[in-house]
Write a structure and sequence with these properties.
The longest helix is centred in the C-terminal third of the chain and has 16 residues, at about 240-255. It is built from 9 helices and 11 strands. The strands form 3 sheets. The protein has a 7-stranded mixed sheet with strand order 5-4-1-6-10-7-11. It is an alpha/beta fold and about 270 residues long. Helix 2 (about 60-65) links the parallel strand 4 (about 50-55) and strand 5. The radius of gyration is 17 Å and the shape is globular. Helix 7 packs across helix 8.
Amino acid sequence: MASSPKALEAIILAAGKGTRMESDLPKVCHPVGGRAMVCAVVDACFKAGCSRVVVVVGYKQELVREALAEYGDRVEFAIQHEQLGTGHAVVSAVDAFPVEKRAQTDVFVLCGDGPLIRTSTLLAMLEKHRSTDAHATLATSVIDDPDGYGRIVRDADGGFARIVEQKNASDAELKINEVNPSYYCMNADAMFEALKKVNRNELTGEYYITDVFEHMLKDSKRVEVIDAVPAQDILSINTLEHLATVDAIYRARHSAQASPETTTEGTV
């Protein structure tokens, strides 16, 4: 990949409780591979070349901070005081990104509860983002059972059109197997400008980061999509059973000395 003058940083969303985990521990602090699961996401970002990572914290934030203390000042924190959705969480980190530097900064936006993330996926997304001079790029996944996920709707030319959530999808859209696993790379300036235009969802009262792409397209900004996330990597951790499954996969990868960057297990 050609060198770029742009900075590369990350925002990791880690403010939620995880109500179905049957524990008072913040969801991202549950262990995978012997460490808090959020550590795997932070590791992937640094291996992909990020100069710093901003972690958005909220519920029992002192435990998340403690879990990430090993990174020192390479990890910074932003506080989401209310749980008002993913868009609101990203806005909570706005002060960590000086206005004068945003145009020359690309930002990964990721969830802290996805420890099966691969550095190779982030690098593929970044390559697509920079080689096409996009304002935003989504890494998607094609899975056999898309139930519960937002679907990626493409236009006639194969480009990105929109993300449609399952509850709003038509019968035809429900048959789409390309889904949104919440892997984003965006120009910081374009992202924060688009977030200013995002309204609260009428049903939930929350602000969603996925709405920024529609606003970017309306403003003639370039949004790219790359099918780069192996199906296995988007396993959701919502229960202790899910946690055990992901932990087993994570440990198997490492015990086989096959890093997340090189293993072909579960690729699509």
